[in-house]
Amino acid sequence: MKQDTALIIIDMINKMDFDGGENLLKNSLPVAKRLRVFKKEVKQQGVPVIYVNDNFGLWQDNASELLEECKKGTGKPVVEEMEPDEDDYFIIKPKHSGFFGTQLSILLDHLKVKNLILTGVAGDICVIFTANDAYMREYNLWVPEDGIASEYKEDNENALRIIKRSLAAQTDSLDCSLLGRIFSS
Q1: d(CA 73, CA 24)
Q2: In whole angstroms, what is the distance from residue 150 CA to residue 123 CA?
Q3: Of the candidates 107, 127, 108, 93, which has an alpha carbon nearest to the alpha carbon of residue 9?
Q4: What is the pLDDT of residues 13-34, one digit of tens each?
Q5: Is-contact 75 28, C-beta < 8 A?
Q6: Which residues of the chain form beta strands (DSSP E)?
Q7: Do residues 116 and 122 lie in contact, with contact meaning Cβ atoms separated by under 8 Å?
Q8: pTM for the full model?
């Protein structure tokens, strides 16, 4: 059991009804399928799952309303693939970083988390901003190369290079057996 690690799923509950949303949907669907399996495996090892999601103008912090609203958009196939479980945490964020203006730091402190597995969309925006803020808070980072997606694959690859080089993150593929090796203390 990896009790000092959390899986963060960023913006996978997403309408994707914006300019470029179709590209993001196309690139996110394979990630969602892999991530659903990975999520199940890490939960069996006791890793908490925390969804950190844009509010899409719904400021009431109501995850179920946000979920239903996003099912009405182009991103419905990803939303259905990534629907949170009852025991998952769900944090609504107002901006790009999962830390900015949210209770994420407090929750991670409460859970005694030191290691973060950051996944989701968009790799070149919200994932990289969240990774940067996590790095500044001295978390150990794993941003799996096949666990994030962006509108354009080149942008995703550039984000991964920056995350690996500048934020000292591991970028190995989603593989539950890597938990112990990546986060060995």
Answers
A1: 13
A2: 5
A3: 127
A4: 888 888 888 899 999 999 999 9
A5: yes
A6: 5-10, 49-54, 89-93, 115-121, 140-142, 148-149
A7: no
A8: 0.92
